[in-house]
């Protein structure tokens, strides 16, 4: 706003050009002062935001923090806690996909099969590298899209949340609210094909995915006995002090 700069410079000298502020001829000094205060306030706000952004960069906060891991590892709860802690927005990719598809993940898989859902998931993952200041909780199978995952990993800090098999089974058994939203991980559209012992099913899927989780993450955290808030604090510390580790 060049005219604002010119106005402020003239105002400092006690001279206000009529062409910039015609009411000066009427002697509306109060209006001039309010105008100056507003402009100076805007400048101060911009300076504060710039300092905040600079502080974030000094702390080493990446553009995105991505949470990965199997079902029931707490990605959504930890993601929300971390978003509150550092002031980022939160995105749950499964919830986003449900909105786009107009149905639950289970319903999408029942009607169209896993390939359809994976295709929708792949499309969403390809969009995420453009998101800024976002905590992203991904579905357990998102790691399977290796090309999109590598693109997302650039500029992101990826955290693998994990639990042992017994804890996973226990959490899934207790989580009746979302049980209906979790389709079987193997099988097709026919529910008879989906029937499988949960422990065997999860063990088989983890055997496939764990090497991908490990290779595609910057930090691994065990979640047994830890609250989402505590885990969010650990992730924040790792971001600040640049000490990726496995806990």
From TrEMBL:
UniProt catalytic activity: shikimate + ATP = 3-phosphoshikimate + ADP + H(+)
Compartments, record wording: Cytoplasm
UniProt-annotated binding residues for substrate: 94, 118, 140, 209
Biased composition range(s): Basic and acidic residues: 188-198
Any one GO CC term of the record: cytosol
Cofactor note: Binds 1 Mg(2+) ion per subunit.
Region of interest called Disordered, as start-end residue ranges on this chain: 177-198
EC number assigned by the record: 2.7.1.71
Quaternary structure note: Monomer.
Protein name as annotated: Shikimate kinase
Source organism: Candidatus Electrothrix marina
